[in-house]
Amino acid sequence: MLTTQEQLKYSRQIMLNKIGQQGQMALRNAKVLIVGVGGLGNPASLYLAAAGVGTLYLADGDTIELSNLPRQIQFSEQDLNKNKADTAAEKLNQQFPDCHIEAIDEMLDQELCDYYLPQVDLVLDCSDNIATRYLINQACVTHKVPLVVGAATGFDGQQMVIDPRDDSSACYHCLFPSSEKAPANNCQTIGILGPVLAIVAGMQTLQAIKLLTGNKAQINKLNLFDGLSNQWQHFTMKKQKTCTVCGEKK
Ligand SMILES: [Zn+2]
């Protein structure tokens, strides 16, 4: 049961009939791993902690640089050179004392994936490189954990839901079987604007909350956002039987 304090605090969410008491309790019991605590992971972790998600694991091996600050809004100049996961966990702990937050202050590898994935209900891919995306996708398929992928460069954003609990769900590898076809994801060379990340992270956290509260989140859809025309485009993704990660011949 929710406490009186929780009833009050989350009353505007509880009054949504798609969430209600049950949904709010599901959020409180949920454990979410956020991979990458940069431009996407910053707003995503804030929104999930604020919505009442009970446990967040934040994974990032990077340190905070001056050029991160225009979009990684939890960090300030006092935080330069500190680890991103540790710093975000410290700040979120202060702001949301009811949320249990654990920092993983290193780059995710196979071993960490195999340790954390069986413990979590959902993963948010907020990473910025293709090797990590492939690793998380593979781990989520192996452990049958839903994955919400987000990416952004320049004015463009991308978001998709992969739910390996559903046999018909395509995975990231179905869409991008080789890294040459995957979107170049380098903010250092292409540039990026904070609000584009906020829009993609907002979409990711909305999908995450729907999945955690037993609502439908759309699988097999690649959602692309163009920040210059302010338009979303939605493409249908298909599970590939030949996919080496989720297909029949894996
Ligand atoms: Zn696949």
Describe this structure in words.
The structure is a single chain. With 250 residues, the chain is an alpha/beta fold. It has one domain (4-236): Rossmann fold. Helices cover 36% and strands 18% of the residues. It is built from 10 helices and 8 strands. The protein has helices at 4-9, 11-14, 20-29, 41-51, 84-95, 110-116, 130-143, 172-175, 187-190, 194-212; strands at 31-35, 55-59, 100-104, 122-125, 147-153, 156-162, 221-226, 231-236. An 8-stranded mixed β-sheet has the order 3-2-1-4-5-6-7-8, with helices on both faces. Helix 4 packs parallel to helix 10 (194-212). The N and C termini lie far apart (43 Å). Zinc ion (ZN) binds at residues 170-171, 173-174, 240, 243, 245-247.
Short structural description:
The protein is an alpha/beta fold and 250 residues long. It has 10 helices and 8 strands.
Structure keywords:
250 residues, alpha/beta, Rossmann fold, 10 helices, 8 strands, globular, binds zinc ion
